[in-house]
From TrEMBL:
<protein>
    <submittedName>
        <fullName>SDR family NAD(P)-dependent oxidoreductase</fullName>
    </submittedName>
</protein>
<dbReference type="InterPro" id="IPR036291">
    <property type="entry name" value="NAD(P)-bd_dom_sf"/>
</dbReference>
<dbReference type="Pfam" id="PF16363">
    <property type="entry name" value="GDP_Man_Dehyd"/>
</dbReference>
<feature type="domain" description="NAD(P)-binding">
    <location>
        <begin position="7"/>
        <end position="304"/>
    </location>
</feature>
<dbReference type="InterPro" id="IPR016040">
    <property type="entry name" value="NAD(P)-bd_dom"/>
</dbReference>
Length: 335
């Protein structure tokens, strides 16, 4: 693929910064758009500032976004507000995730951007009705986040069908790895479990722990997203990107305990989270056949890499947990 000018929304976030890193390694010029609510400048500090430019802009600032779209070849749209955020701020969540996507599609089309990659979420499926889940699985989101991401998908596909505008939808399953979120209402289970166990605090399981997820190492997720913007034949398609296996959350806690060398790390159970999906298990056959996508990092290897990253971060687990929220859909203080 020839070198291109690429715009990545949410590019200072967890998955976004890994995507930007991979794009930069291929020599592309990248404009990162991130309002730094969840993203961090430090996530891009390792990159050449002459190749990667950060614009600290909210995607809802349409005049600014119109200027930034000029001369762009590909948009990778990852900017969003998360699942737990949608439980305490549904209208704002919808404004960014759904309306924001529609507005960006129109700006990209009018700016002659050559293609638009929309990064959705496995949350659009809700709880699995059959497994593994391919792209034809029914969509029945359980939260405003899932509903907003599905609306964004529908707008993205509509631009392909109505205008012939080259778009593709990617549905990543649960990602983990370095730079993942443990803090605030963005905090996810793997970094929260690992940091709490490292700090000698109990890992908190909401519900009975029998719910499952398909965890994919972030470098694999980002590679799948990157490929979706490079392959002409997938325009108009919707593609899963996942590991292709499932693990119960209670088993995950045990695996993380062993990863950090604390076989008897404490676990406590709390009430179920509202809108919690009970089962996810990806079928990424289409991405494998059309993109050549294949996960390269196992759950065990990815957890070991994350553990090493935390140990070399320069911050203690206790320091990092200072901004954790346990019941983070209510922004309750950590305990």
């Amino acid at each position: 693929m020839p070198l291109t000018n690429i715009l990545v929304t949410g590019g200072a976030g967890f998955i976004g910064s890994e995507l930007v890193t991979q794009l930069a390694s291929n020599g592309h010029r990248i404009t990162v758009v991130d309002n730094l609510v969840n993203g961090k400048r430090s996530n891009l500090a390792h990159l050449n500032s002459e190749q990667v430019e950060l614009a600290a802009v909210d995607i809802r600032d349409l005049p600014a976004m119109a200027r930034l779209m000029s001369g762009i070849d590909i948009v990778y749209h990852l900017a969003c507000l998360g699942v737990r955020h949608s439980l305490h701020a549904p209208a704002e969540n919808h404004s960014v995730n759904a309306t924001g996507t529609l507005d960006l599609l129109e700006l990209a089309r009018k700016s002659d951007v050559k293609r638009f990659v929309y990064v959705s979420s496995s949350e659009v499926y809700g709880t699995a009705r059959r497994t593994p889940m391919n792209e034809e699985h029914p969509t029945y989101p359980l939260t405003v986040y899932g509903g907003g991401k599905l609306a964004g998908e529908c707008y993205t596909r509509a631009y392909w069908e109505s205008y012939g505008y080259p778009t593709v939808v990617v549905r990543p399953f649960n990602s983990f790895g370095p730079r993942s979120h443990h803090e605030g209402d963005s905090g996810e289970v793997i970094p929260k479990f690992m940091l709490r166990a490292m700090a000698g605090k109990p890992m908190v399981i909401f519900g009975d722990g029998k719910q499952t997820r398909d965890f994919t190492y972030v470098a694999d997720t980002a590679r799948g997203i990157m490929l979706a913007g490079e392959v002409d034949s997938v325009m108009g398609r919707t593609l899963n990107v996942g590991q292709g296996s499932e693990v119960r959350i209670r088993d995950l806690a045990t695996i993380i305990s062993k990863t950090i060398g604390k076989d008897n790390a404490a676990i406590v159970y709390d009430d179920s989270r509202p809108g919690d999906v009970l089962r996810l298990y990806a079928d990424s056959t289409a991405a494998r056949e059309l993109l050549g996508f294949k996960p390269e990092v196992s759950l065990a290897d990815g957890l070991a890499r994350l553990y090493d990253w935390y140990r070399n971060s320069g911050h203690s687990p206790a320091q990092l947990l200072a901004d954790e929220r346990v019941r983070n859909w209510t922004l309750e203080k950590a305990s």
